[in-house]
Protein backbone atom coordinates (compact mmCIF):
# COMPACT_ATOMS: atom_id res chain seq x y z
CA UNK A 1 0.00 0.00 0.00
CA UNK A 2 2.82 2.43 0.91
CA UNK A 3 4.52 1.66 -2.42
CA UNK A 4 1.29 2.40 -4.33
CA UNK A 5 0.84 5.72 -2.51
CA UNK A 6 4.48 6.64 -3.22
CA UNK A 7 4.06 5.91 -6.95
CA UNK A 8 0.84 7.94 -6.99
CA UNK A 9 2.66 10.91 -5.44
CA UNK A 10 5.45 10.59 -8.01
CA UNK A 11 2.92 10.60 -10.83
CA UNK A 12 1.31 13.72 -9.48
CA UNK A 13 4.56 15.51 -8.67
CA UNK A 14 5.00 17.41 -11.97
CA UNK A 15 1.46 18.75 -11.75
CA UNK A 16 1.72 19.66 -8.06
CA UNK A 17 4.99 21.51 -8.57
CA UNK A 18 3.66 23.41 -11.57
CA UNK A 19 0.34 24.20 -9.92
CA UNK A 20 1.97 25.62 -6.81
CA UNK A 21 4.12 28.05 -8.81
CA UNK A 22 1.35 29.99 -10.55
CA UNK A 23 -1.22 32.11 -8.77
CA UNK A 24 -4.60 33.27 -10.07
CA UNK A 25 -4.78 36.07 -7.49
CA UNK A 26 -4.04 39.29 -9.38
CA UNK A 27 -3.88 41.67 -6.42
CA UNK A 28 -1.93 39.20 -4.30
CA UNK A 29 0.63 38.56 -7.04
CA UNK A 30 1.30 42.24 -7.67
CA UNK A 31 1.50 42.96 -3.94
CA UNK A 32 4.00 40.13 -3.41
CA UNK A 33 6.04 41.22 -6.44
CA UNK A 34 6.33 44.76 -5.13
CA UNK A 35 7.28 43.56 -1.66
CA UNK A 36 9.93 41.17 -3.03
CA UNK A 37 10.99 43.50 -5.90
CA UNK A 38 10.50 40.69 -8.43
CA UNK A 39 9.30 40.94 -12.05
CA UNK A 40 6.05 39.19 -12.93
CA UNK A 41 5.22 36.59 -15.59
CA UNK A 42 1.55 36.79 -16.63
CA UNK A 43 0.34 33.84 -18.70
CA UNK A 44 -2.87 34.64 -20.63
CA UNK A 45 -4.22 31.25 -21.67
CA UNK A 46 -7.28 29.32 -22.82
CA UNK A 47 -8.03 25.80 -21.58
CA UNK A 48 -8.96 24.88 -25.19
CA UNK A 49 -5.73 26.26 -26.69
CA UNK A 50 -3.09 23.68 -27.82
CA UNK A 51 -0.01 25.96 -27.59
CA UNK A 52 -1.19 27.22 -24.18
CA UNK A 53 -1.30 23.65 -22.91
CA UNK A 54 2.00 22.87 -24.61
CA UNK A 55 3.67 25.67 -22.63
CA UNK A 56 2.26 24.09 -19.46
CA UNK A 57 3.45 20.61 -20.38
CA UNK A 58 6.88 21.27 -21.90
CA UNK A 59 8.02 24.52 -20.27
CA UNK A 60 6.26 25.40 -17.01
CA UNK A 61 6.53 21.87 -15.58
CA UNK A 62 10.29 21.54 -16.18
CA UNK A 63 13.02 21.83 -13.59
CA UNK A 64 14.80 24.44 -15.74
CA UNK A 65 11.81 26.77 -15.65
CA UNK A 66 11.01 26.07 -12.01
CA UNK A 67 14.56 26.96 -10.99
CA UNK A 68 14.58 30.28 -12.87
CA UNK A 69 11.01 31.09 -11.81
CA UNK A 70 12.32 31.73 -8.28
CA UNK A 71 13.32 35.18 -9.51
CA UNK A 72 9.77 36.00 -10.65
CA UNK A 73 6.20 36.08 -9.41
CA UNK A 74 3.90 34.01 -11.64
CA UNK A 75 0.29 34.74 -12.53
CA UNK A 76 -2.15 32.79 -14.73
CA UNK A 77 -5.14 34.49 -16.36
CA UNK A 78 -7.89 32.37 -17.95
CA UNK A 79 -8.69 34.51 -20.99
CA UNK A 80 -12.31 33.31 -21.15
CA UNK A 81 -13.20 34.39 -17.63
CA UNK A 82 -15.00 37.73 -17.36
CA UNK A 83 -12.48 38.82 -14.73
CA UNK A 84 -9.70 38.66 -17.32
CA UNK A 85 -10.79 41.73 -19.26
CA UNK A 86 -9.18 44.37 -17.07
CA UNK A 87 -5.69 42.95 -17.60
CA UNK A 88 -6.35 41.99 -21.24
CA UNK A 89 -7.34 45.59 -21.95
CA UNK A 90 -4.35 46.94 -20.06
CA UNK A 91 -1.83 44.83 -21.98
CA UNK A 92 -3.83 44.76 -25.25
CA UNK A 93 -3.90 40.99 -25.55
CA UNK A 94 -4.98 39.77 -28.97
CA UNK A 95 -4.17 36.05 -29.07
CA UNK A 96 -3.28 33.07 -26.90
CA UNK A 97 -1.01 32.16 -25.39
CA UNK A 98 0.42 35.59 -24.64
CA UNK A 99 2.97 35.70 -21.84
CA UNK A 100 3.62 39.22 -20.57
CA UNK A 101 6.67 40.01 -18.45
CA UNK A 102 6.30 43.09 -16.25
CA UNK A 103 8.12 44.95 -13.51
CA UNK A 104 6.67 44.69 -9.97
CA UNK A 105 4.28 47.58 -10.66
CA UNK A 106 3.00 46.10 -13.91
CA UNK A 107 4.98 48.07 -16.52
CA UNK A 108 5.62 45.76 -19.46
CA UNK A 109 9.20 44.58 -20.01
CA UNK A 110 8.65 42.00 -22.76
CA UNK A 111 6.12 39.53 -24.15
CA UNK A 112 5.92 36.22 -25.97
CA UNK A 113 3.00 35.45 -28.28
CA UNK A 114 2.55 31.80 -29.15
CA UNK A 115 4.58 28.78 -28.12
CA UNK A 116 8.31 28.81 -27.36
CA UNK A 117 10.53 25.88 -26.44
CA UNK A 118 12.07 25.70 -22.98
CA UNK A 119 15.42 26.88 -24.35
CA UNK A 120 13.89 29.95 -26.01
CA UNK A 121 11.67 30.72 -23.01
CA UNK A 122 14.63 30.65 -20.61
CA UNK A 123 16.53 33.02 -22.91
CA UNK A 124 13.63 35.47 -22.68
CA UNK A 125 13.58 35.14 -18.88
CA UNK A 126 17.29 36.04 -18.87
CA UNK A 127 16.61 39.02 -21.12
CA UNK A 128 13.87 40.23 -18.77
CA UNK A 129 16.07 39.87 -15.69
CA UNK A 130 18.88 41.81 -17.35
CA UNK A 131 16.63 44.63 -18.57
CA UNK A 132 14.02 44.83 -15.80
CA UNK A 133 15.22 48.25 -14.64
CA UNK A 134 15.12 49.77 -18.14
CA UNK A 135 11.81 51.33 -19.14
CA UNK A 136 10.34 50.66 -22.57
CA UNK A 137 10.90 54.28 -23.62
CA UNK A 138 14.60 53.89 -22.86
CA UNK A 139 14.77 50.64 -24.83
CA UNK A 140 13.10 52.27 -27.85
CA UNK A 141 15.59 55.16 -27.76
CA UNK A 142 18.58 52.80 -27.53
CA UNK A 143 20.88 51.57 -30.30
CA UNK A 144 21.35 48.19 -28.61
CA UNK A 145 19.93 45.20 -30.52
CA UNK A 146 18.25 43.55 -27.51
CA UNK A 147 16.66 46.84 -26.46
CA UNK A 148 15.37 47.59 -29.95
CA UNK A 149 14.13 44.04 -30.34
CA UNK A 150 12.20 44.33 -27.09
CA UNK A 151 10.76 47.66 -28.29
CA UNK A 152 9.75 46.23 -31.69
CA UNK A 153 8.02 43.18 -30.19
CA UNK A 154 5.98 45.10 -27.62
CA UNK A 155 5.01 47.95 -29.95
CA UNK A 156 4.04 45.51 -32.71
CA UNK A 157 1.81 43.43 -30.47
CA UNK A 158 0.22 46.57 -29.02
CA UNK A 159 -0.42 47.86 -32.57
CA UNK A 160 1.61 51.02 -31.91
CA UNK A 161 2.54 51.49 -35.56
CA UNK A 162 4.70 54.60 -35.16
CA UNK A 163 6.79 53.07 -32.40
CA UNK A 164 7.17 49.70 -34.15
CA UNK A 165 8.05 51.30 -37.51
CA UNK A 166 10.84 53.30 -35.89
CA UNK A 167 12.19 50.18 -34.18
CA UNK A 168 12.05 48.23 -37.47
CA UNK A 169 13.96 51.01 -39.20
CA UNK A 170 16.75 50.92 -36.62
CA UNK A 171 16.93 47.12 -36.67
CA UNK A 172 17.18 46.96 -40.46
CA UNK A 173 20.82 47.91 -40.31
CA UNK A 174 21.61 45.56 -37.43
CA UNK A 175 19.87 42.26 -38.17
CA UNK A 176 21.39 39.93 -40.74
CA UNK A 177 19.38 37.98 -43.35
CA UNK A 178 19.21 34.30 -42.54
CA UNK A 179 18.59 34.84 -38.82
CA UNK A 180 15.39 34.17 -36.88
CA UNK A 181 15.12 37.78 -35.72
CA UNK A 182 15.39 38.96 -39.34
CA UNK A 183 12.41 36.73 -40.21
CA UNK A 184 10.46 37.76 -37.12
CA UNK A 185 10.88 41.47 -37.81
CA UNK A 186 9.50 41.03 -41.32
CA UNK A 187 6.58 39.07 -39.94
CA UNK A 188 5.75 41.84 -37.46
CA UNK A 189 6.16 44.46 -40.19
CA UNK A 190 3.72 42.68 -42.51
CA UNK A 191 1.16 42.18 -39.75
CA UNK A 192 1.16 45.93 -39.15
CA UNK A 193 0.24 46.73 -42.78
CA UNK A 194 -3.46 47.65 -42.83
CA UNK A 195 -3.98 48.20 -46.58
CA UNK A 196 -4.87 44.78 -48.10
CA UNK A 197 -3.24 45.38 -51.49
CA UNK A 198 0.02 46.48 -49.88
CA UNK A 199 -0.06 43.52 -47.51
CA UNK A 200 -0.55 41.04 -50.35
CA UNK A 201 2.26 42.68 -52.32
CA UNK A 202 4.51 42.60 -49.26
CA UNK A 203 3.95 38.88 -48.69
CA UNK A 204 4.62 38.20 -52.37
CA UNK A 205 7.98 39.96 -52.09
CA UNK A 206 8.88 38.01 -48.96
CA UNK A 207 7.97 34.71 -50.60
CA UNK A 208 10.06 35.57 -53.65
CA UNK A 209 13.13 36.73 -51.72
CA UNK A 210 13.15 34.39 -48.71
CA UNK A 211 11.35 31.21 -49.76
CA UNK A 212 13.92 29.00 -48.01
CA UNK A 213 13.23 30.10 -44.42
CA UNK A 214 10.78 28.02 -42.33
CA UNK A 215 8.95 31.29 -41.66
CA UNK A 216 8.02 31.34 -45.36
CA UNK A 217 5.40 28.68 -44.60
CA UNK A 218 3.83 31.04 -42.05
CA UNK A 219 3.98 33.90 -44.55
CA UNK A 220 2.34 31.69 -47.17
CA UNK A 221 -0.63 30.97 -44.87
CA UNK A 222 -1.01 34.70 -44.14
CA UNK A 223 -0.68 35.49 -47.85
CA UNK A 224 -3.53 33.15 -48.76
CA UNK A 225 -5.66 34.51 -45.90
CA UNK A 226 -5.24 38.01 -47.38
CA UNK A 227 -7.41 36.82 -50.31
CA UNK A 228 -10.26 35.41 -48.21
CA UNK A 229 -12.63 38.30 -48.94
CA UNK A 230 -11.49 38.82 -52.53
CA UNK A 231 -13.48 37.47 -55.48
CA UNK A 232 -11.75 39.25 -58.36
CA UNK A 233 -8.08 38.59 -57.63
CA UNK A 234 -6.33 35.32 -56.90
CA UNK A 235 -3.10 34.46 -55.06
CA UNK A 236 -0.02 33.48 -57.05
CA UNK A 237 0.07 29.77 -56.30
CA UNK A 238 3.45 29.38 -57.96
CA UNK A 239 4.90 31.26 -54.97
CA UNK A 240 3.31 28.72 -52.62
CA UNK A 241 4.62 25.85 -54.74
CA UNK A 242 8.14 27.26 -54.59
CA UNK A 243 7.99 27.43 -50.79
CA UNK A 244 6.66 23.87 -50.55
CA UNK A 245 9.51 22.61 -52.74
CA UNK A 246 11.94 23.69 -50.03
CA UNK A 247 10.06 21.98 -47.21
CA UNK A 248 12.57 19.16 -46.68
CA UNK A 249 15.45 21.58 -46.07
CA UNK A 250 13.30 23.62 -43.70
CA UNK A 251 12.96 20.60 -41.40
CA UNK A 252 16.64 20.83 -40.43
CA UNK A 253 16.94 24.62 -40.51
CA UNK A 254 18.87 26.05 -37.55
CA UNK A 255 16.27 28.83 -37.15
CA UNK A 256 13.36 26.51 -36.34
CA UNK A 257 13.41 26.69 -32.55
CA UNK A 258 14.04 30.44 -32.40
CA UNK A 259 11.05 30.95 -34.71
CA UNK A 260 8.80 29.04 -32.30
CA UNK A 261 8.48 26.19 -34.80
CA UNK A 262 9.23 22.46 -34.85
CA UNK A 263 9.28 19.72 -37.48
CA UNK A 264 5.80 18.73 -36.42
CA UNK A 265 4.37 22.27 -36.53
CA UNK A 266 5.94 22.71 -39.98
CA UNK A 267 4.10 19.59 -41.13
CA UNK A 268 0.84 20.99 -39.80
CA UNK A 269 1.38 24.27 -41.64
CA UNK A 270 2.33 22.38 -44.81
CA UNK A 271 -0.86 20.31 -44.56
CA UNK A 272 -2.95 23.46 -44.12
CA UNK A 273 -1.31 25.07 -47.15
CA UNK A 274 -1.85 21.98 -49.31
CA UNK A 275 -5.52 21.92 -48.36
CA UNK A 276 -5.90 25.63 -49.13
CA UNK A 277 -4.44 25.27 -52.64
CA UNK A 278 -6.55 22.19 -53.42
CA UNK A 279 -3.93 19.44 -53.14
CA UNK A 280 -6.07 17.24 -50.94
CA UNK A 281 -4.25 13.90 -51.32
CA UNK A 282 -0.90 15.44 -50.37
CA UNK A 283 -2.60 17.30 -47.51
CA UNK A 284 -4.02 14.07 -46.06
CA UNK A 285 -0.56 12.48 -46.06
CA UNK A 286 0.88 15.53 -44.27
CA UNK A 287 -1.91 15.58 -41.67
CA UNK A 288 -1.31 11.89 -40.91
CA UNK A 289 2.45 12.41 -40.64
CA UNK A 290 1.88 15.29 -38.23
CA UNK A 291 -0.38 13.08 -36.11
CA UNK A 292 2.35 10.43 -35.88
CA UNK A 293 4.92 13.03 -34.80
CA UNK A 294 2.53 14.37 -32.17
CA UNK A 295 2.13 10.88 -30.73
CA UNK A 296 5.92 10.53 -30.54
CA UNK A 297 6.30 13.93 -28.87
CA UNK A 298 3.71 13.19 -26.21
CA UNK A 299 5.51 9.95 -25.34
CA UNK A 300 8.48 12.05 -24.19
CA UNK A 301 6.50 13.83 -21.47
CA UNK A 302 7.04 12.87 -17.81
CA UNK A 303 5.23 9.82 -16.46
CA UNK A 304 1.86 10.86 -15.06
CA UNK A 305 1.34 13.76 -17.46
CA UNK A 306 -1.79 13.94 -19.56
CA UNK A 307 -0.56 15.25 -22.94
CA UNK A 308 -3.53 17.54 -23.44
CA UNK A 309 -1.80 19.90 -25.90
CA UNK A 310 -0.58 17.11 -28.14
CA UNK A 311 -3.95 15.37 -27.97
CA UNK A 312 -5.83 18.51 -29.00
CA UNK A 313 -3.54 18.84 -32.01
CA UNK A 314 -3.74 15.11 -32.82
CA UNK A 315 -7.53 15.25 -32.88
CA UNK A 316 -7.34 18.22 -35.25
CA UNK A 317 -4.86 16.42 -37.51
CA UNK A 318 -6.87 13.19 -37.60
CA UNK A 319 -10.08 15.07 -38.32
CA UNK A 320 -8.39 17.11 -41.06
CA UNK A 321 -7.09 13.85 -42.58
CA UNK A 322 -10.63 12.49 -42.69
CA UNK A 323 -9.95 9.94 -39.94
CA UNK A 324 -13.13 10.91 -38.11
CA UNK A 325 -13.64 7.71 -36.11
CA UNK A 326 -10.04 7.81 -34.82
CA UNK A 327 -10.43 11.49 -33.93
CA UNK A 328 -13.72 10.77 -32.12
CA UNK A 329 -12.18 7.89 -30.16
CA UNK A 330 -9.38 10.14 -28.92
CA UNK A 331 -11.74 13.02 -28.10
CA UNK A 332 -14.03 10.66 -26.17
CA UNK A 333 -11.09 9.24 -24.22
CA UNK A 334 -9.99 12.71 -23.12
CA UNK A 335 -13.56 13.78 -22.46
CA UNK A 336 -13.54 11.16 -19.71
CA UNK A 337 -10.14 12.34 -18.43
CA UNK A 338 -11.38 15.95 -18.23
CA UNK A 339 -15.10 15.51 -17.46
CA UNK A 340 -15.57 19.01 -16.03
CA UNK A 341 -14.05 20.82 -19.02
CA UNK A 342 -16.01 21.73 -22.14
CA UNK A 343 -13.07 21.35 -24.57
CA UNK A 344 -13.33 17.67 -25.48
CA UNK A 345 -17.15 17.74 -25.42
CA UNK A 346 -16.95 20.46 -28.06
CA UNK A 347 -14.52 18.46 -30.21
CA UNK A 348 -16.57 15.26 -29.84
CA UNK A 349 -19.83 17.00 -30.74
CA UNK A 350 -18.33 18.62 -33.83
CA UNK A 351 -16.98 15.29 -35.06
CA UNK A 352 -20.32 13.56 -34.39
CA UNK A 353 -21.95 16.35 -36.39
CA UNK A 354 -19.62 15.63 -39.33
CA UNK A 355 -20.48 11.93 -39.01
CA UNK A 356 -24.19 12.91 -39.14
CA UNK A 357 -24.82 11.24 -35.79
CA UNK A 358 -26.94 14.19 -34.75
CA UNK A 359 -28.74 12.73 -31.75
CA UNK A 360 -25.44 11.78 -30.09
CA UNK A 361 -23.96 15.13 -31.05
CA UNK A 362 -26.79 17.02 -29.34
CA UNK A 363 -26.35 15.06 -26.10
CA UNK A 364 -22.60 15.72 -26.01
CA UNK A 365 -22.95 19.37 -27.08
CA UNK A 366 -25.52 20.03 -24.33
CA UNK A 367 -23.02 18.91 -21.70
CA UNK A 368 -20.29 21.01 -23.31
CA UNK A 369 -22.63 24.01 -23.30
CA UNK A 370 -23.32 23.56 -19.59
CA UNK A 371 -19.58 23.50 -18.82
CA UNK A 372 -18.55 26.33 -21.15
CA UNK A 373 -18.05 29.99 -20.29
CA UNK A 374 -16.93 33.21 -21.95
CA UNK A 375 -16.59 33.25 -25.73
CA UNK A 376 -16.64 29.47 -25.84
CA UNK A 377 -20.19 29.47 -24.51
CA UNK A 378 -21.17 31.40 -27.65
CA UNK A 379 -19.39 28.80 -29.79
CA UNK A 380 -21.14 25.92 -28.04
CA UNK A 381 -24.50 27.70 -28.40
CA UNK A 382 -23.88 28.14 -32.13
CA UNK A 383 -23.12 24.44 -32.51
CA UNK A 384 -26.23 23.45 -30.53
CA UNK A 385 -28.49 25.71 -32.59
CA UNK A 386 -27.11 24.16 -35.77
CA UNK A 387 -27.62 20.66 -34.36
CA UNK A 388 -31.17 21.41 -33.19
CA UNK A 389 -31.85 22.40 -36.79
CA UNK A 390 -31.46 18.73 -37.76
CA UNK A 391 -34.34 17.65 -35.49
CA UNK A 392 -35.70 20.37 -35.81
CA UNK A 393 -36.36 21.79 -32.34
CA UNK A 394 -36.86 25.52 -32.80
CA UNK A 395 -38.19 26.14 -29.29
CA UNK A 396 -35.03 24.89 -27.58
CA UNK A 397 -32.80 26.55 -30.16
CA UNK A 398 -34.54 29.91 -29.65
CA UNK A 399 -34.17 29.64 -25.88
CA UNK A 400 -30.42 29.12 -26.26
CA UNK A 401 -30.17 32.01 -28.72
CA UNK A 402 -32.15 34.34 -26.44
CA UNK A 403 -30.14 33.33 -23.37
CA UNK A 404 -26.81 34.08 -25.04
CA UNK A 405 -27.86 37.38 -26.61
CA UNK A 406 -29.24 38.51 -23.24
CA UNK A 407 -26.11 37.50 -21.32
CA UNK A 408 -23.37 38.67 -23.68
CA UNK A 409 -22.97 42.42 -24.03
CA UNK A 410 -19.43 42.98 -25.29
CA UNK A 411 -18.13 46.42 -24.40
CA UNK A 412 -14.37 46.12 -24.08
CA UNK A 413 -12.59 47.53 -27.13
CA UNK A 414 -10.57 44.36 -27.61
CA UNK A 415 -13.54 41.98 -27.64
CA UNK A 416 -13.22 41.48 -31.40
CA UNK A 417 -13.40 37.70 -31.01
CA UNK A 418 -16.64 38.00 -29.01
CA UNK A 419 -18.27 40.09 -31.75
CA UNK A 420 -17.12 37.57 -34.37
CA UNK A 421 -18.63 34.64 -32.44
CA UNK A 422 -21.88 36.54 -31.87
CA UNK A 423 -22.12 37.15 -35.62
CA UNK A 424 -21.75 33.41 -36.26
CA UNK A 425 -24.43 32.72 -33.63
CA UNK A 426 -26.80 35.12 -35.39
CA UNK A 427 -26.02 33.53 -38.77
CA UNK A 428 -26.76 30.05 -37.37
CA UNK A 429 -30.09 31.24 -36.01
CA UNK A 430 -30.97 33.00 -39.28
CA UNK A 431 -30.40 29.72 -41.16
CA UNK A 432 -32.58 27.68 -38.79
CA UNK A 433 -35.08 25.57 -40.80
CA UNK A 434 -38.57 27.03 -41.01
CA UNK A 435 -40.90 24.65 -39.18
Layout of helices and strands, plus pairs?
Layout: H1 2-21, H2 26-36, E1 40-45, H3 50-60, H4 63-68, E2 73-78, H5 85-91, E3 98-102, E4 108-113, H6 118-131, H7 136-141, H8 145-157, H9 161-172, H10 180-191, H11 196-209, H12 215-225, H13 237-245, H14 247-250, H15 263-276, H16 280-298, H17 308-320, H18 324-337, H19 343-354, H20 358-371, H21 375-388, H22 394-407, H23 416-430
Parallel strand pairs: 1-2
Antiparallel strand pairs: 1-3, 3-4
Helix pairs in contact: 3-17, 8-9, 8-10, 11-12, 12-15, 15-16, 16-17, 17-18, 18-19, 19-20, 20-21, 21-22, 21-23, 22-23
Commentary on this structure:
The chain has about 425 residues and is mainly alpha-helical. It has 23 helices and four strands. It has a four-stranded mixed sheet with strand order 2-1-3-4, sandwiched between helices. β3 and β4 form a beta hairpin.
Features:
Serine Threonine Protein Phosphatase 5, Tetratricopeptide repeat; four-stranded mixed beta sheet; 23 helices; 64% helix
Strand arrangement, largest sheet?
2-1-3-4
Shape: globular
CATH class of the domain at 326-435: Mainly Alpha
Question: CATH superfamily of the domain at 326-435, please?
Answer: Tetratricopeptide repeat domain
What's the helix-strand series? HHEHHEHEEHHHHHHHHHHHHHHHHHH
User: Over the alpha carbons, how many angstroms does the gyration radius reach?
Assistant: 23 Å
CATH fold type of the domain at 326-435: Serine Threonine Protein Phosphatase 5, Tetratricopeptide repeat
Question: How many β-strand runs?
Answer: 4
The helical percent reads 55-70%
Q: Approximately how much beta-strand content do the residues carry?
A: 5-15%
Average pLDDT:
91
Q: Which spans of ≥5 residues are poorly predicted at pLDDT below 50?
A: 1-18
Gap from first CA to last CA: 62 Å
In the CATH hierarchy, what is the architecture of the domain at 326-435 at level 2? Alpha Horseshoe
| Class by alpha and beta content | mainly alpha
How many helices in DSSP terms?
A: 23
Largest sheet: 4 strands, mixed
